[in-house]
Amino acid sequence: MTATDSRLLNFQAVEDTPLQTDPFSFMVAEDVIPAGELERVNADYPRIDIPANFNPEDLEFGPAFAQVLRELDSPEFEQLIERKFGVNLGRTVKTITVRKYSEMSDGNIHTDHWSKVITVLLYFNPEWHQEGGKLRLLRSKSDIEDYAAEVTPIGGTLLAFKRSGNSYHGYKRFDGERRMVQVNWVRSGPVARQAQRLARMGTHTGKRILRLAQGLRGAAK
Q: Partners of 116 in the beta sheet?
């Protein structure tokens, strides 16, 4: 059996998907988790009960999900992303996080922090019928309806994009289960690390304020 035969993820689907450049560089590949494997992978998905991103080492999960993480962390996948976007990721740091739930403070239009080079999102939900939660790749920072592509977070769909000054994206509010793994290649160095830390602090503070405001509105009804 070859390494390709034993691989769970369908890297060829990523290889075969064309890169889009309007309004920024992105690609959306389907069936990256083959339909016959999705149920098995989801059975091994970590038990998470709060809307937050987790490092894999802080979670417990089964072997099929562990294999997905290994393949996303593999040199083969990194080389595939380098070829697809024409970038050299040799001087970056790769981060992988896992999320299970979205909350009403998620989905705000943004471009990602400047220290990020490439973002990959792999989705796991077996079905999706909600209007909210579909990631939109936007043409501006102010209009969620002006989008070039809308990505339904259905299991096996992989979105990858190159961060830029106009890589605006976001989604309509959604509160519920929205399973995904996020892979980022991030610039290394002390300035980038400090900027990332400050950005995370600002994001967490903003979310706390929004949750408080939502709670006050709910209490006033």
A: 186
Tell me, what amino acid is at 88? N
Nearest to 122 by CA among 113, 132, 110, 135: 135
pTM higher than 0.90:
no
Q: Which of 80, 90, 81 is nearest to 163 (CA)?
A: 81
pLDDT of residue 4: 57
pLDDT, average across residues 69-90: 98
| Residue 35 to residue 39: CA distance in whole angstroms | 8
CA distances 102 to 18, 72, 108, 174, 180, Å, are: 29, 22, 12, 6, 10
What DSSP state is assigned to residue 45? S
The encoded tokens of residue 6 equal 């034993």
Q: Give the Cα separation of 9 and 124 in Å (integer).
A: 12
What's phi and psi for 217, nearest 5 deg?
-65, -40
Alpha carbons 112 and 104: distance in angstroms, whole number: 19
> How far is 92 from 119, CA to CA, in rounded Å?
12
pLDDT in tens, 30-40: 999 998 999 99
pLDDT tens digits along 101-138: 999 999 999 999 999 999 999 999 999 999 999 999 99
β partners of residue 183: 96, 120
Among candidates 137, 178, 128, 106, which has minimal Cα distance to 28? 137
pLDDT of residue 203: 44
Beta-bridged to residue 161, according to DSSP, are 26, 119
Report whether 113 contacts 182 (CB < 8 A). Answer: no
Whole-angstrom distance, CA of residue 75 vs CA of residue 70: 10
